Amino acid sequence: MGNSTKVRKKKGKGKNIEDEFSPTIRRIIKKKISLLSDFRVVTRKNQKEYTSLFEKELEDISDPIIAQRKADCIAYQIIAEND
Q: For residue 82, what are the CA distances in angstroms to 39, 42, 62?
């Protein structure tokens, strides 16, 4: 079956939330946010902002390898801008 990129609906806090990312791509985003927090770019206050940035950039990508490469580029660019 492999990685599915179908839209799944999750129940959370009384409403349906559409999650359009596969678990693999969601994991990629979490790892990049973690990397940026190691570089002290992402804090708890601005974590949602950076997460939505990655989600916006990766929303049309279904291939995890391409998503990984694009997320790497975004993370490196953010790190370079904050040095």
A: 9, 11, 29
Band of pLDDT at residue 4, cut at 50, 70 and 90: low
Q: Residue 6's closest CA among 64, 67, 53, 62?
A: 62
- DSSP letter, residue 20: -
Q: What is the pTM of this model?
A: 0.73
Compute CA 17 distance to the chain's CA centroid, rounded to the nearest angstrom.
Answer: 16
Q: Are 75 and 39 in contact (CB under 8 A)?
A: no
pLDDT in tens, 18-45: 457 789 999 999 999 999 999 999 999 9
